[in-house]
């Protein structure tokens, strides 16, 4: 679905629909009810979705279109190959260096000091790379950038700000150093971003690069498939990775894109597995022993309780994480390297003090694998504490280390740290059940449920359960994992932004999620002072609309008294109509001088496409003489007009006082007796006719100098009555997008995010206009709430 910057939503009304034609027939005089109008608008949204998804596809013939699709498939195939190798290499490198770090710690007397030095050095180097790169898109997880690329259209010139070869290289370099150091960070989010960067770089190398990059619809599909590749390879989970990418990055997903995404994800997963097998690594990241019956039926109740606990903890984690980031944001940005060094030294000290390492390494993945097995590390068996006590201490420390590391100015993932927190939480609950039960309890199963539930709570996804099952191979735990994931996600989804949406807000990227959580109605974003126009009005009212409002769409009401919505007209159509009418009377300069803002927009759309020819010396001389002559004539007319005004003041001082009183009355918005009122606000408060404003006080609102003959023509045109439905450029759209007055924010979410409409009208009883909500107002409201 595309944004409606280039699609005329108003002109896309289903006028050719048989039902619509029937309703507009002469024999059918009854107006459609509000519900019917809303139904028609939503009925047309499906058609608009298809049109928007193809609006930029300007290929000339069918053969070229097929070639373009083949180019896309080839592109995604190579994205899968490259991503599989890159992700496999990064995982292998981090495992090897993590094992080296652990050996360094345990093999020497000064091992703790060596660990602090190496951890701090690697983290400082990681932060230094990001600082020197000077790319905001390389900081933190990278999933906010991926989501921004998929949920919003971008121009070709905007992509390098979010995806590029430089961003990919900086991300991989910083990520490997941070992950090897032992920080509580993951690999998943940054590697997904790198996968999307790979697809963008390959797209620029294709013969059809220009066509592809100028087509936001195709690029969004490519980015969505690339995100699925990144997640599938980094988890070695093709199904769960694809579903996770859909839930995290997409408001909706094109069914036609599933095959491409699965093809690319499968290719990447195969390459990833081949790479790991050649390196004598396990194809599954967290292989566990298969258990045929891992739980009893009565344990489902405990799994539900675990889902509730995980959801509450996830909600607290999101609040604390965002609060800490907002509190430390200035310090972290001002001293990125120093803050990174302090956190790295503290992390190394805690790893040594709490024995959070083994022979396999000291990374977060080692902790997760241990929690899915016998859990000898996190239970702190080397200390004189109970198993539950050791797990609780490890859980609290893991939460602290994750919050500290994930807010640094480095490239870091969050999936694996959150997986470790959830696994430790589940392990605590499972151990408590084991201590109080006489039956066989599969404690690692609780760790799986806790991991799936906590990730679902922080990311607002259900597919985390599928990823956990694919990573462990314990297929019989799918039902408990789904139970925990659904409950935890339900607890946090209505009370907080997801971790990745918080990242979007922190980086200034667009997100409508916050509005869904902060309001159940339209009171915060409803514009009640919307300018409307009646179906029969004067040309002067059109000037008043364009001069006194920045609206892009104007509602058309039946009359000022009943304020019933009957359609809408576009601002640009109104301007083009005024240009056409005044151009026919040779006074186009009046429109251009009065509606300066609309004129500048119109000129910017036309002038870039015009290539002026260089003038000859003789032509430049003639043009200079003409400009000088026009300037002199303008000054003479202004002087004559000033003299006339001065003479009128001397001859008729009473008339001047009377006109001044009228002008003051008009400017305050009070009604003037004897004048017509055609434009209004939605509440029925009349706005003055523009005729008097333009004919008094030397044409208020315009800097155009007019001759007496031109003034007469302007007066006649401004007072001319028009019927909007009879004017081709002003014919109203009879089915604008509307929502009932007491709707929820979900309706706006569908219209703005899926249908991509620029604005909607809010209706009360009997179709009366209550106001308008625009996409820009929603974004402005979001930013004000965040600030």
Provide an overview of this structure.
By secondary structure, this protein is mainly alpha-helical. Among the domains are: 67-278, Orthogonal Bundle (Clc chloride channel); 299-338 and 351-516, Clc chloride channel, CATH 1.10.3080. The protein contains 31 helices and nine strands. The protein has helices at 18-23, 34-54, 62-107, 111-133, 143-151, 165-181, 188-205, 209-213, 216-235, 238-249, 256-278, 299-334, 336-353, 364-371, 387-406, 415-436, 443-459, 464-472, 478-493, 499-506, 513-518, 539-547, 571-584, 588-594, 596-606, 617-651, 653-667, 690-695, 708-718, 745-755, 775-786; strands at residues 531-534, 536-538, 553-557, 565-570, 679-681, 721-723, 738-740, 759-763, 769-774. It has a four-stranded mixed β-sheet. A three-stranded mixed β-sheet has the order 7-8-9. Helix 16 crosses helix 17.
How are the SSEs placed, and which strands pair?
Elements: H1 18-23, H2 34-54, H3 62-107, H4 111-133, H5 143-151, H6 165-181, H7 188-205, H8 209-213, H9 216-235, H10 238-249, H11 256-278, H12 299-334, H13 336-353, H14 364-371, H15 387-406, H16 415-436, H17 443-459, H18 464-472, H19 478-493, H20 499-506, H21 513-518, E1 531-534, E2 536-538, H22 539-547, E3 553-557, E4 565-570, H23 571-584, H24 588-594, H25 596-606, H26 617-651, H27 653-667, E5 679-681, H28 690-695, H29 708-718, E6 721-723, E7 738-740, H30 745-755, E8 759-763, E9 769-774, H31 775-786
Parallel strand pairs: 1-3, 7-8
Antiparallel strand pairs: 1-5, 2-6, 3-4, 8-9
Helix pairs in contact: 3-4, 3-6, 3-7, 3-9, 3-11, 4-6, 4-13, 5-9, 5-20, 6-7, 7-9, 9-10, 9-11, 10-11, 10-18, 12-17, 12-19, 13-15, 14-16, 15-16, 16-17, 17-18, 17-19, 18-19, 22-23, 23-24
Family: Belongs to the chloride channel (TC 2.A.49) family.
Subcellular location: Membrane
Membrane topology: Multi-pass membrane protein
């Amino acid at each position: 679905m595309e944004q409606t910057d280039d699609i005329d939503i108003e002109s896309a009304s289903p006028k050719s629909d048989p039902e619509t034609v029937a309703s507009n027939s002469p024999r059918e005089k009854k107006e459609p009810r509000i519900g019917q109008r809303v139904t028609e608008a939503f009925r047309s949204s499906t058609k608009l979705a298809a049109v928007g998804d193809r609006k930029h596809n300007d290929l000339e013939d069918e053969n070229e279109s097929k070639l373009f699709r083949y180019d896309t498939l080839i592109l995604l195939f190579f994205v899968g190959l490259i991503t599989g190798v890159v992700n496999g290499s990064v995982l292998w490198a981090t495992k090897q260096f993590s094992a080296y770090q652990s050996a360094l710690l345990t093999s020497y007397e000064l091992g703790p000091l060596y660990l602090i030095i190496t951890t701090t050095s690697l983290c400082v180097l990681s932060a230094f790379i990001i600082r020197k790169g000077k790319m905001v898109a390389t900081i933190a997880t990278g999933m906010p950038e991926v989501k921004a690329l998929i949920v919003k259209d971008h121009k070709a010139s905007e992509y390098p700000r979010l995806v590029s070869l430089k961003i990919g290289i900086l991300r991989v370099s910083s990520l490997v150093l941070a992950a090897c150091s032992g920080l509580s960070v993951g690999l998943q989010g940054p590697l997904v971003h790198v996968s999307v960067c790979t697809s963008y770089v390959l797209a620029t190398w294709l013969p059809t690069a220009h066509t592809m990059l100028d087509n936001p619809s195709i690029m969004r599909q490519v980015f969505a498939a690339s995100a699925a590749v990144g997640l599938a390879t980094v988890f070695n989970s093709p199904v769960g990775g694809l579903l996770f990418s859909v839930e995290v990055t997409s408001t909706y997903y094109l069914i036609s894109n599933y095959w491409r995404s699965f093809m690319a994800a499968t290719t990447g997963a195969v390459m990833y597995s081949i790479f790991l097998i050649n390196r004598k690594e396990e194809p599954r990241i967290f292989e566990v022993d298969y258990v045929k019956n891992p739980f009893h039926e009565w344990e489902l109740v405990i799994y539900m309780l675990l889902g509730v606990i995980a959801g509450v903890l996830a909600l607290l984690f999101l609040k604390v994480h965002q609060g800490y980031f907002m509190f430390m944001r200035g310090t972290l940005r001002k001293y990125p390297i120093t803050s990174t060094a302090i956190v790295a030294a503290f992390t190394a000290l805690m790893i040594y003090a709490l024995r959070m390492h083994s022979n396999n390494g000291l990374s977060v993945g080692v902790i997760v694998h241990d929690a899915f097995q016998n859990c000898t590390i996190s239970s702190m068996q080397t200390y004189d504490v109970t198993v539950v006590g050791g797990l609780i201490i490890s859980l609290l420390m893991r939460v602290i280390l994750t919050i500290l590391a994930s807010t640094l100015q480095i490239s870091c993932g969050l999936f694996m740290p959150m997986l470790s927190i959830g696994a430790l939480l589940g392990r605590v609950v499972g151990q408590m059940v084991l201590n109080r039960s006489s039956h066989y309890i599969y404690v690692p199963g609780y760790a799986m449920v806790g991991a799936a539930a906590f990730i679902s709570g922080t990311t607002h996804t259900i597919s985390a359960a599928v990823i956990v099952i694919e990573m462990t191979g314990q297929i019989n735990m799918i039902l408990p994992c789904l139970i925990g994931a659904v409950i935890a996600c339900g607890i946090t989804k209505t009370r907080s932004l997801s971790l990745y949406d918080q990242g979007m807000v922190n980086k200034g990227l667009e997100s409508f999620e916050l509005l869904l959580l902060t309001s159940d109605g339209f009171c915060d974003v409803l514009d009640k002072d919307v300018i409307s126009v009646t179906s029969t009005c004067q040309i002067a009212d059109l000037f008043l609309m364009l001069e006194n409002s920045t609206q892009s769409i104007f509602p058309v009401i039946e009359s000022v008294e009943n304020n019933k919505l009957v359609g809408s007209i576009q601002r640009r159509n109104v301007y083009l109509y005024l240009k056409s009418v005044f151009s026919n009377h040779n006074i186009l300069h009046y429109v251009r001088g009065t509606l300066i803002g609309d004129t500048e927009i119109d000129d910017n759309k036309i002038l870039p496409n015009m290539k002026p020819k260089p003038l000859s010396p003789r032509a430049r001389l003639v043009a200079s003489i003409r400009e000088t002559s026009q300037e002199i004539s303008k000054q003479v007319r202004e002087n004559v007009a000033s003299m006339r005004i001065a003479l009128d003041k001397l001859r008729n001082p009473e008339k001047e006082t009377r006109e001044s009183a009228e002008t003051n009355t008009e400017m305050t918005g009070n009604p003037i007796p004897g004048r017509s009122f055609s434009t209004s606000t939605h509440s029925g408060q009349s706005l003055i006719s523009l005729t008097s404003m333009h004919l008094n006080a030397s044409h208020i609102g315009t800097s155009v100098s007019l001759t007496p003959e031109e003034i007469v023509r302007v007066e006649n045109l401004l007072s001319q009555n028009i019927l909007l439905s009879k004017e081709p450029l002003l014919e109203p759209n009879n089915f604008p997008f509307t929502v009932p007055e007491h709707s929820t924010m979900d309706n706006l979410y569908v219209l703005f995010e899926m249908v991509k409409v620029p604005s909607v009208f809010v209706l009360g009883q009997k179709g009366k206009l209550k106001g308008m909500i625009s996409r820009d107002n929603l974004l402005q409201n979001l930013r004000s709430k965040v600030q």
